[in-house]
């Protein structure tokens, strides 16, 4: 008995010590978990890594400008093939007739797509005063952030910009600015490269082939990718506007038919096996979500 008591009394100390250690460990784990969980609650602490490109690899980015209602189906069509796009929207038009709503934009973001800024009312920025430009760029971004959209990428309406406009895009907290043009097409911009470099030559003037028009056939789009692949890879951001359920009407210059769009996606999707991948603009550029301008 005595031995038994003795054994029991001896064993109490390590049990208590073990319990205390376990309690302390659990407390530490809880504290660390609580600290770790604070990060995602503050969206401005989020940081996306820039994409590391393999030598010779090509990235294709799908850009959809002007938050046109006909772009709503682009999200699911891309997602069904494991792809995501970037939707550059004008906050002043969101929810008005013919344009995407905030609910649709939030759904797109929830599905992994990106929403970028494209000014409030789509003006030619260089024709405006500095104060007016700041309003169009900064207040547009602030309005989109307020709706829970993670806005880091900007596209210049009409590709119209100068050094003052670029500086404002930086001041308004954007991580990139997208141009219209600057890449070589089968019919133009000779002397231009087939693809943008990664990282871009100028992150606030990301080059494109211009906007897709109704005259661009499936093979024309395929050629842009094939030439860029053959030219050593890089980055091809493709800029879409209207997606028409049937053949694009002559009144819609910046338009692609739904069938051509789907055929292009179906042709592009298997190219991942050759190293060609589809990423959003933010995926390629990376960086923090900067707070709204003060
Ligand atoms: Zn536009």
UniProtKB/TrEMBL annotation:
PANTHER family: CHITOOLIGOSACCHARIDE DEACETYLASE, PTHR34216. PROSITE patterns: NODB. Pfam families: Polysacc_deac_1 (PF01522). The keyword Signal applies. One of its GO terms (biological process) is carbohydrate metabolic process. It comes from Hyalangium minutum. Keywords: Signal. CDD domains: CE4_GLA_like_6s. Residues 1-36 form the signal peptide. This is Polysaccharide deacetylase. InterPro entries: Glyco_hydro/deAcase_b/a-brl (IPR011330), NODB_dom (IPR002509), Polysacch_Deacetylase (IPR051398).
């Amino acid at each position: 008995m005595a031995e038994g008591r003795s054994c029991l009394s001896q064993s109490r100390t390590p049990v208590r010590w073990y319990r205390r250690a376990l309690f302390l460990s659990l407390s530490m784990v809880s504290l660390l978990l609580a600290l770790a969980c604070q990060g995602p609650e503050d969206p401005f602490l989020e940081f996306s890594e820039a994409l590391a490109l393999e030598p010779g690899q090509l990235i294709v980015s799908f850009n959809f400008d002007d938050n046109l209602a006909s772009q709503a189906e682009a999200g699911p069509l891309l997602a069904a093939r494991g792809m995501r796009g970037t939707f550059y929207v004008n906050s002043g038009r969101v929810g008005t007739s013919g344009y995407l709503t905030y609910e649709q934009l939030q759904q797109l973001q929830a599905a992994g797509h990106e929403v970028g800024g494209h000014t409030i009312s789509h003006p030619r920025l260089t024709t405006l005063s500095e104060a007016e430009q700041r309003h169009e760029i900064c207040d547009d971004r602030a309005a989109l952030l307020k709706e829970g959209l993670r806005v880091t990428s900007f596209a210049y309406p009409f590709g119209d910009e100068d050094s003052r406009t670029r500086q404002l895009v930086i001041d308004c907290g954007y991580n990139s600015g997208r141009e219209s043009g600057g890449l070589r097409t089968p019919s133009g911009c000779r002397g231009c490269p087939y693809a943008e470099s990664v990282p871009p030559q100028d992150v606030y003037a990301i080059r494109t082939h211009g906007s897709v028009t109704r005259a661009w056939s499936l093979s024309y789009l395929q050629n842009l990718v094939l030439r860029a692949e053959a030219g050593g890879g890089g980055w091809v951001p493709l800029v879409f506007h209207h997606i028409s359920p049937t053949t694009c009407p002559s009144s819609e210059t910046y338009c692609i038919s739904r069938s051509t769009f789907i055929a292009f996606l179906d042709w592009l999707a298997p190219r991942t096996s050759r190293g060609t991948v589809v990423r959003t603009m933010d995926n390629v550029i990376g960086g923090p979500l900067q707070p709204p301008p003060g």
